[in-house]
Write a structure and sequence with these properties.
Elements: H1 2-19, H2 22-28, H3 37-42, H4 45-67
Length: 68
């Protein structure tokens, strides 16, 4: 049941983000975030931390490959 509720919440957030005022979307979205605002609204803090760490490690490995 929890999975269904989470799935419904994701659908609702995604549908709401399409109808938001574009000005508020721009003001709330930071260019320094790794992911779009909807990502932060649909994932838990633990998931965000894990995925962010994986993305940072991938970016670091790409930078190391460029430096060689």
């Amino acid at each position: 049941m929890r999975r269904i509720k989470k799935w419904i919440k994701k659908i609702k957030v995604r549908s709401d983000s399409g109808t938001r005022n574009p000005k508020s979307y721009v003001l709330e979205h930071s260019a320094w975030r790794l992911f779009p605002l909807s990502f932060y609204q649909t994932h838990t803090q633990a998931e965000i931390k894990r995925i962010t760490q994986a993305a940072i490690e991938k970016i670091r490995s790409l930078i190391d490959d460029l430096e060689q």
